[in-house]
Amino acid sequence: MAGQDLKALADRAATEIAAAADEAALEASRVRYLGRKEGALSEATKKLASLPPPERPAYGAAVNDAKIRIEKALEAREAALRDAALARELGQEREDLSLPPRRVRLGRLHPISQTMREVSRIFATLGFETVEGPEIEWDYYNFEALNIPPGHPAREKWQTLWISNPLGDDPSRPILGRTHTSPMQVRIMEERRPPIRVVIPGRCYRYEATDAIRESIFFQYEGLAIDEKLTMADLKGTLYAFARQVFGSDRKIRFRVDYFPFTEPSAEIAFDCFACEGKDPNCHVCGGDGWIEAAGCGMVHPDVLRRVGYDPTRYQGFAFGGGIERIAMLKTGAPDIRLFYQNDIRYLEQF
Ligand code: DAH
Questions:
Q1: Percent helix, strand and coil across the chain, each rounded to 5?
Q2: What is the four-CA torsion angle of 149, 152, 154, 156, rounded to 10 degrees?
């Protein structure tokens, strides 16, 4: 093949390549012209050795030119085919803007968590700091330090879930699921010196059958204030202020004498029944009583103060403890405490 023939070959190849319809056609052209075994150019290269030396440089250069032109043509066509394929693909893809969007479902706090936060918030406005404590408790804090030694009849009031002690089953140091948040009174007083103003929301456990207003796992809030000149009037004022913030001024509050071993005197707070407002003698919420017991309270017993090393002639204090679920029920009108824990999203998402 002479130099001109090589140029003609390259022209033909370029025309053919530019017209290649797809990748397969392009590949066939590559093999035909540049293929190592039978490609037209390798045939030409093989001829190089048989030429007389003076002719070799010019011929070699011509082969090289042809090769470069064919390679460029291949590259250009390959890019063109790729662009066309991409354009076709993009042309077919369409965003369907008429599709309804997927709803983003934002979660929210459980109504009992909401109530706990509200209780904390309201007591914060009255100067009380929120503190938390252990749910698994020593008998000592749950009972003994609160003037309820082993064998004391008041223990029957708190049906207890006892736990076998993982720290060696030492029967002299029994542990339990705390039956109320009151043990935190003692823990806080052991840790701090007066003045103290704390509120402790938290989970409690009782070995008890459930009904419309009782659960075996439930939440309480505990309040404790210790200072030098606190009286029953401070206790009443604090709880009235709290009740008014939670329920508004309409809800009636009953404050009357009660007994708890760790307060003296002790009192009980009740709200008028939200379900029947005292009108239904068969009411399944209040049992026809018209009142729902909401909290126990009183002045911290001098023996409790002495046990943590406080001088009761110098310090006095008041304490109170009530059920979080009862507040949530009063606020939402929920007729049954169990609704909060059945985890039916249709019920819970209303709040
Ligand atoms: N812990 C008591 C209970 O669960 C309620 C209670 C009564 C708490 C009197 C107090 C208190 O702080 O002073 O039944």
A1: 45, 20, 35
A2: 110
- Nearest CA, atom 13, ligand 1: 297
Residues 6 or more apart from 45 whose CB is under 8 A from it?
Answer: 63
What's the pLDDT band for 169 if we cut at 50, 70, 90?
low
Q: Do residues 155 and 53 share a domain?
A: no
Among residues 276, 295, 286, 159, the alpha carbon closest in space to that of 221 is found at: 295
Does 141 sit in the ligand 1 pocket, CB within 6 Å?
no
> Which of 320, 324, 325, 326 should be mutated for ligand 1, with most atoms under 8 A from CB?
320
C-beta of residue 246 within 8 angstroms of C-beta of residue 332: no
Percent of the residues in the chain that have a pLDDT greater than 70, as a whole number: 97
The CB-side HSE value for 174 (13 A sphere, CA atoms) comes to: 14
Number of domains making up the chain? 2
* Cβ neighbours, 10 Å, residue 213: 20
Domain-located, residue 103? no
